[in-house]
Fold:
Amino acid sequence: MTEILRNRLRALRAERGWTQADLAERVGVTRKTINTVENNVFIPSTVLALKLARALELPVEEVFQLPPGA
Amino acid sequence: MPDKIPGPPPSAELIERLQRRRTRLLFFQAIVFLLWQTTFLRMGTLDGTRLVDHVKIGSYIIWTALLLAYIGTGGGPFLPREVRAILNDETTIAHRWRGMAMGFWAAMGAAIGCYVVTLFDVVTSREVIHAVLTAGVGAGLLTFAILERRAQRADD
Structure:
């Protein structure tokens, strides 16, 4: 079974005018990781999801959501 | 003893540059490593009695061990700890694990292949070990490099 975790990372990042590299630097990961999370290629760990939400100053459930029926 | 005062975090540009360099190096190493194996196709001539055979076998083992360590650790032993931690972030670790898994299956495939060959021909233990190591390390390294390159494609 392929797990899917929806996220609004790209939209939220764009709202703030940040590049992937900007967000990566704030969270302490590589730009590649932001890229793969945004494209749903990679599902981040709980720790990384919380760090991303903190960087965006939002609750984690506003950044990541399970698809309906999951 | 007081804790070491942390320096400024490494810049995104530096990390990006190091990451791209690592991916290029991974690809280069994987291709050269696999191409070099063609010189071992006539391995039966390497009987280990000549100096050149010792050099060739020794360099193969050292290079293989280094590449194995690279897949296992992510490399960068001379980089500052903070830089190394960012370079080996979650996706990199996931890619390394997938590379190792692919290396395992390739090594098992090579072992099965060698087993079958022994039914029809004489195969020395060194040839079998060479085939299994090469398949495992080559497939692992190449998988790691491909996943890293795919993930790095700019999307901004």
In short: Residues 20 and 31 of chain A are 6 Å apart (CA to CA). The mean pLDDT of chain A is 91.
